[in-house]
Here is the input.
Amino acid sequence: MNWNHMVQRMAGAAALAMAASIPVAAQVSPAAPPGMPMNPLPIGDTSAIAKEAQSWLADLIKINTTNPPGNEQLAAMYIAGILEKEGIKSEILDLTPGRSALLARLKSTAMADPSKALLLVAHMDVVGVEKPKWTVDPFAAVQKDGYLYGRGAIDDKGMLAANLAAFIALKRANPRLNRDVIFLATADEEQFGDASVKILIAKHWDKFAAGFALNEGGEVLLKNGKVQYVAVQASEKVPVNVTVVARGTSGHASMPTKDNAVVHLAAAVAKIGNYSAPVHFTTIVRRYFEQLAAIEDDEMGKWMRSLDAPDRGEHAQRVISDASPLWNSMLRDSIAPTMLTAGVRANVIPGEARANLNIRLLPGDTIDVLLAELKKLVNDPQIRFEIQPDAGLAAPPSSLENDFYATITKVAGREFSDAWGR
Here is the structure.
């Protein structure tokens, strides 16, 4: 993670936490004269706490929370110690042995109003790492050329440290809040198992119920060192894992068979890997490309404005999909083969071979409809599809028309006033 990006993320989070804690109407101020900065929020200069946040991030990276097994309790205890020094009471919520979440709250009144509360949430666990492919120790938090290298620096310990800094900055500023601000560090985001947020919700929702939440997903996009635009994620695809199973006759490899499970699985995965689901425009995706077209170069902007044009929409969709894997995935359900399993010995033809498909469904789409298409595509009686029980939770998109999103837009414009897409 680049230190400048870390400061931007922390400053934006701190400013938004402050902005969300005062009436939106009170934020409207006369336009500043050309060249004059807007009045800063009462949070003050964030440079000092940004340095502290850098130190916290480095320490968090050094705490190995690879999931599995997670061991997030160690990270939770570290954060609790930081909050204690600031006079902030926190609660460690134990979920499974060695796995905990951490919760802290800045109260606005003696009687909390969950419908107004703002939740700052980030997860402490990280995905596994192939150390031989790293040029530095992924858990040493190495600083090099203005960057901090480490597993989780971006996903999601950078945001965890930024949220912590914003939360502490708000406490130090001691403003009069009109809503509670809640800090939540979660476990098991990467596996979504028995220590994940779904368990937190089932057991402890009353402790962090909030009408508004800021989570990972958005980012500040730079081009040639200049902030191009601030991306705010307002909708989420639904992850579903599907196992593709091929079955055939097992036997000795010296006598190949036509129904070899590995061969049939390979053919099925090849077909699926080359398949593109139909384009499905959601309201939020359509609005994203409409706004992005205004700041992209003329050629790309032209195709963005033509995405659902009756005469050249299909061609525009191909251009946009080919230009960016991100854009391609925003336009349709996506399918990524991720794991292959087959065989017990090099000289034995296995009776079964398996592949995992990680599928991301657009809001409103269903796995049954997509699988029906894949079955027709593969068209092989030796292949079957098994939906795994670890699917993500479908959620409605966040509103882009409420005061919360308006506040995000205003704060983003203030923090990044020279952004092309403000």
Notes: Residues 42 and 173 are 7 Å apart (CA to CA). DSSP finds twelve helices and 15 strands in the chain.
